[in-house]
Amino acid sequence: MATVQEKETITQISKRMKKEQRAIGFRRLKSNYGLLIGASVFGVLVLLALLGPLFTSYGPNDMKVVERLMSPSAAHLLGTDEFGRDLLTRLLHGARVSLGVGLIVALLSSVLGLIIGVYATYYKTLDHILMRICDGLIAIPGILLAIALMAALGASALNVIIALTIVFTPNIARVVRSSALVVREQTYIEAMQVQGASSTRIIWLHIVPNTLSPLIVQATFVFAEAIISEAALSFLGAGIPAPDPSWGNILQASKLVIFKAWWMVVFPGAALVLSVLSLNLLGDGLRDLLDPRTKHKHKLRKS
Known about the structure:
Elements: H1 2-31, H2 33-51, H3 87-122, H4 124-139, H5 142-153, H6 157-184, H7 187-194, H8 199-207, H9 212-235, H10 247-254, H11 263-290, H12 292-302
């Protein structure tokens, strides 16, 4: 009877501890204003990108020359461009392109960087080879490397994704490697090696899960940088080719009419600023949520 009561007591204590942990996690989430603001703003942008084009009565490439460079009005809420195309419609369709490219680049870079980082950590020979390649790519300014790759590959959305993935993968690989090195030296990893556990099991079941927190945070920053980089490439004419809309090539077209149509500069620029700022707030918030020690270190530095 005593054993049954002890089991019931342990079960109750376990349930209470889990409930308290959830409550603490919820309080930390509520107090993380950067994460909440960033997630809210970025969520609104994603919803506008996904659902906004369904509610516009214009196509992204519908031209009415007689309505060119019209200022914002009831008919065209954000005005029209130099060909009479509705700017709001083009911004919403461009959001799909810009955010889509950024998301795919962040995912591909994270997967490739994770694989490179953990295997470079576990195998010393691969470490020397892969990290020297990453060092060489990091030494080249990202935008110059992207332009060079686009010049070789040609302007298209797929090639933009390939070029930016090559640019950002080395940075993620470095972050993953630094986290994996700490895990690699833990005693339980050595114990598993002594017991004969396979390298694949150790890497994917024990090292990789412990590198996911910094990887997720870094992926949000790469997402933001990829959006900016895609816009820069499109602005320079090496990114998404016209007439397909993206925030970058909308800004590229606006430079010719900047003094006649301010709305062509302000609205796509504001979309870029909001998306990048919200992703950076989201990344900072995730870093504080996943690693509370980081927030404590910031407080110590300020004091």
